[in-house]
Design goal:
With 308 residues, the protein is mostly helical. The chain has helices spanning 2-24, 35-48, 51-76, 85-96, 99-114, 118-144, 155-192, 200-227, 240-262, 266-270, 272-307. It is globular, with a radius of gyration of 23 Å.
Length: 308
């Protein structure tokens, strides 16, 4: 009994010291808010914020927006006069998607990417704008339903901001895709003409293009977080939440793709429907990561406001 009391006293003492240290330190991106306060608010946000329901709503709206947006982007490819662009893009998609998901979409992708179709392009542009705006609107609504309180906009204001963010996101994603695809085309040409070899420089350039693409993706998330609240004076564009969401989305996408390719048996059980399940799950996990990043930013803001 005495040993139990001593052990309990020891752990209580260590816990008190740990809390004292956490109350005195702050991480980069926390805006001088104490680590302990941020953890408390973040825990409450996760516990009381209905994250699963909010992530499900976002994933559903993103699923509606995904296909017309992808069709619109891909129908632009045949109009770009660059040799081997279609081949490089298909290889990129093959490397990014799970194998079974790529097989399910391969025929459609090849048809859309290699053949010009003005009517599909027009319909894709309109439907992409409508569904993408609704998707971002749903994302902002999910942010507004956080446990933490902050100023929000009315429906019209939210819709206008969602439309603006769609154009910004489209621009950033388009630039990222151009960097990834065109840089690979240029690298292959340099290797073909023996200007460049498969040496350290070649792999450094490849690493550099992915770093730039990741940075653009980070900025896209930062735009979402920065413009979601109506009052931005307390929010920073470069934030800890954006960093966490970017890392989480990268890890979940990588891990989920590895699991599906190596252990998933969904295609044997469900066929093509299983592929849709995989895409929806991938969207759900990434939506969850976006909400977690926003909850971290809201927790930092509340912790800083409470101390002021």
């Amino acid at each position: 009994m005495k040993n139990h009391s001593k052990l309990e006293a020891y752990f209580n003492k260590r816990l008190t010291r740990l809390i004292d240290k956490a109350e005195k330190i702050s991480f980069p991106g926390f805006n001088d808010a104490a680590l302990y306060d941020v953890i408390i608010f973040f825990y409450k946000g996760i516990q009381r914020g209905y994250l699963a329901s909010r992530a499900s709503a976002i994933a559903f709206n993103f699923a509606l927006a995904l296909f017309p947006t992808v069709i619109f982007l891909f129908t632009l490819i045949p109009y770009i006069p660059v040799n081997n662009l279609q081949t490089e893009l298909l290889e990129l998609i093959h490397d990014f998607l799970p194998q079974n998901a790529y097989r399910f979409l391969e025929n459609t992708l090849v048809s859309v990417i290699t053949q010009k179709n003005g009517s599909v392009l027009s319909i894709g542009a309109i439907s992409s704008l409508i569904f993408s705006t609704s998707g971002v609107h749903a994302l902002i609504d999910a942010f507004n339903n956080t446990y933490h309180s902050f100023d929000t906009r009315n429906w019209v204001g939210t819709r206008l901001v969602a439309t603006l963010q769609v154009f910004i996101l489209f621009l950033l994603i388009a630039v990222a895709l151009l960097i990834i695809v065109f840089s690979q085309v240029i690298l292959n040409m340099l290797v073909e003409y023996q200007v460049l070899e498969y040496n350290l420089t070649y792999y450094l350039i490849i690493a550099g293009k992915w770093i730039v693409a990741t940075a653009l993706f980070f900025f896209a998330i930062s735009f979402l977080y920065y413009y979601a609240p109506a009052k931005k004076s307390q929010w920073h564009f470069i934030s800890a939440g954006s960093s966490m969401a970017t890392i989480l989305i990268f890890l979940t996408s990588l891990g989920f793709s590895y699991f599906v390719n190596n252990f998933g048996q969904y295609n044997k059980l469900y066929g093509s429907i299983g592929t849709m399940m995989v895409i929806l799950l991938w969207l759900y996990f990434n939506s969850f990561a976006l909400i977690l990043g926003f909850e971290l930013n809201a927790s930092i803001n509340n912790a800083k406001t409470q101390k002021a």
